[in-house]
Amino acid sequence: MSTILHQPLRILVTGGAGFIGANFLHQIVPKFPDAVIVNLDKLTYAGNLQNLHAIENARNYRFVHGDICDLALVQKLFTEHQFTTVVHFAAESHVDRSIHSPIDFVRSNVVGTASLLQVAKDFWMRFSSDMQKFRFLHVSTDEVFGALGSSGTFSTETPYAPRSPYAASKAGADHFVRAYAETYGLPVVVSNCSNNYGPYQFPEKLIPLAIVRALSRDPIPVYSKGENVRDWLHVRDHCEALTCMLQYGLTGETYLVGSAGECSNLELLRVLLTILDEELGRPSGSSWELITFVKDRPGHDFRYAIDASKLITELGWTPSHTLEEGLRTTVRWYLSNPSWLQAVMDESYRTYMKSQYSTG
């Protein structure tokens, strides 16, 4: 590992009540005990404060309920905490929802990112002349690159070609981040990751949805013939990569995060359901019969695959989970946390959140 280039001291995490953001906070709150860590989250349907129960009373952690588009609130937080570090997760992230409500994605992902950048830029230009004392880490997706055929991988040189409203909104956010770096010199690092899975994932996504459906022996919907291919990345490996970029990554650089966990949706489900059957004591593979093919969604990208060699070579990161190991730990987590899952399914987590958050 190279020399630390940035030491996070006062950290703003946006969207930290969501799936990836919560896992990231679980990692950095104990890792940086002397830092001040503020989690700003709007708490849309996929934001869940129960994801953060284990750290909510940590001395170095504070939650603020609010919207990154609220310039006055974000300015107030910067003034109060004098942030040295921004880690930006906050985004609408489900492709299917973007097809039905694209303007919501433009507001959250494009306008929200631009608003956050503006406040961060003003603060940085006013108070910090040292490039290494401030860092804006923008967390994005490989979907901005469009679709691959049967071969090849995405790299940092791949041109943008988004094919869904979600991907287009994240591409717009990426472009704003780079524009603020080029125009104002804001010290940024950009991350584009492959499909994440693991603890605390909202069960509209394929893996937790399949687990939920299989537990109740309900049909598991799969688009078309299940031939679409994704590179599956365990969320905790992703968070390790982000922490690595935060401390050791070069400003102005983009790093792609993937784990070479490439397989089709159908192959993935067969491995996942076999593991689930084993953990539940069911006949091996008996849950395969729940797989139900449904009409494909519009603009469904055929294949994604990541070339993470830059991150591995330059920053020394490597994933800790193989796909099968990661799926097994994920299944065991969901089986071991039935109260969390029930609260999400019956939406009682919303009642819990209203009793917990404060604004400002």
Produce a short descriptive summary.
This protein is an alpha/beta fold and 360 residues long. Helix content is 42%, strand content 16%.
H/E element order: EHEEHEHHEHEEHEEHEEHEHHHH
Helicity level: 40-55%
Q: What fraction of the residues are assigned to beta strands by DSSP? A: 15-25%
Under the CATH scheme, the architecture of the domain at 10-196 and 235-260 and 301-320 and 348-354 is 3-Layer(aba) Sandwich
Q: Could you name the CATH topology of the domain at 10-196 and 235-260 and 301-320 and 348-354?
A: Rossmann fold
Judging from the principal axes of the Cα atoms, what is the shape? globular
Question: What do we call the CATH homologous superfamily of the domain at 10-196 and 235-260 and 301-320 and 348-354?
Answer: NAD(P)-binding Rossmann-like Domain
- The total count of strands amounts to 12
CATH class of the domain at 10-196 and 235-260 and 301-320 and 348-354: Alpha Beta
Broad structural category: alpha/beta
The radius of gyration computed from the alpha-carbon positions, rounded to a whole number of angstroms, is 20 Å
Report, as a whole number of angstroms, the end-to-end distance.
38 Å
Total number of helices: 12
Q: Please state the average pLDDT score.
A: 93
Biggest sheet overview: 7 strands, parallel
Given as residue ranges, the uncertain stretches (5+ residues, pLDDT < 50) are: none
Which quaternary structure do these chains form? single chain
In which order are the strands of the major sheet placed? 3-2-1-4-5-6-10
